[in-house]
Amino acid sequence: MIDPFGRPVTYLRVSVTDRCDLRCVYCMAEDMTFLPKPDLLTLEEMERLCGAFIRLGTDKIRITGGEPLVRRGVMTLFQGLGARLGQGLRELTLTTNGSQLTRFAHDLAQAGVRRVNVSLDTLDPAKFAEITRWGRLDKTLDGIFAAQDAGLAVKINAVAMKHVNEGEIDQLVAWCGEHGFDLCLIETMPMGEIEAQRADQYLPLSMVRARLRKSWTLTQTDYATGGPARYYDVAETGQRVGFITPMTHNFCESCNRVRLTCTGTLYMCLGQNDAAEFRAILRDGASEEELEAAIREAISRKPKGHDFIIDRTSGAPVVPRHMSVTGG
Ligand code: SAM
Ligand code: SF4
């Protein structure tokens, strides 16, 4: 599938639930209203839709959310998709907060998952509780090490926040280096209403990178995981540190992905509101050909780039969805 700007679309991210066992301050409001169950695609519907994407050339699928591991029965989806590895699908992976990984790491590895991204913004237990509102650092760390023990390669995702964890990035680089994890730093994106003021949280990664250079020797590499991160080798640790900078650098030229929500809405861009609906098509008994045609039509509408701006008069985000809806 090639979009109107000549970009091959080979990567599908699937949000399997909008729910989560945490309430990270940059992602959700504390009091969230979640979707009623009948609105959600069943895991079978998701697998069928993923199958159509794979036939059309999607070779990488990432399961995300909300917290994907809180969706009941989610391992059946991993098993179903895992069976397609080597048959069109090249990689099956997930992004998780790690809280359930002690339970699921082994089964994920069995299903064919080789890499996981785990979100961890701080190594300080009190700050972790503050950022995630409901989380416990030890639970996430146990999950991370369970994944490592199960043979999964772990990448740590950290959202860089002004005044919150900006003083700890060196420590995160050192800790990841010690344990053999790559680290990926992310700028906060203005998505959805939260209690905090977005502008107060925003920390440009260009500044973080300049600060890191005082302690670490960073050499830019062309290592790529199919995502928007730009990676640097850290000479002192032998690991990599990546930067995802949607706000300071336009990362759209090489965009190869589309995102499916748990209700079957396909967003062709994380930072735009145009979408295609698949739930009704699936439930109206569409044939595989009709499903494929609907996917192709959606890809033909993939926009050139995102629109992550905060409305200057109201202070409201232009993208009203929370990240947990489209899947980060
Ligand atoms: N619950 C899982 C987790 O936390 O990894 C998967 C879903 S979460 C929405 C995916 C990623 O998006 C996490 O790394 C999270 O830190 C990031 N994220 C959430 N809201 C964000 C925002 N407004 N700006 C930037 N990153 C965000
Ligand atoms: Fe949950 Fe992930 Fe959002 Fe945190 S970032 S609230 S863990 S979905």
Topology:
Elements: E1 11-15, H1 43-55, E2 60-64, H2 74-82, E3 91-96, H3 101-111, E4 115-119, H4 125-132, H5 137-149, E5 153-160, H6 169-179, E6 182-187, H7 198-201, H8 205-212, E7 218-220, E8 230-234, E9 240-244, E10 257-260, E11 265-267, E12 275-277, H9 279-283, H10 288-299, H11 323-326
Parallel strand pairs: 1-2, 1-10, 2-3, 3-4, 4-5, 5-6, 6-9
Antiparallel strand pairs: 7-8, 8-9, 10-11, 11-12
The structure holds S-adenosylmethionine and iron/sulfur cluster.
The CATH homology group name: Aldolase class I
What is the terminal-to-terminal distance? 22 Å
Order of H and E elements:
EHEHEHEHHEHEHHEEEEEEHHH
The biggest sheet amounts to:
12 strands, mixed
CATH architecture: Alpha-Beta Barrel
- For the record, the count of structural domains works out to 1
Q: In percent, how much strand structure appears in the residues?
A: 15-25%
Sum up the overall morphology in one term: globular
**Highest CATH level, the class:** Alpha Beta
Mean pLDDT score, rounded? 91
Tell me the total number of β-strands.
Answer: 12
Compute the gyration radius: what is it?
A: 19 Å
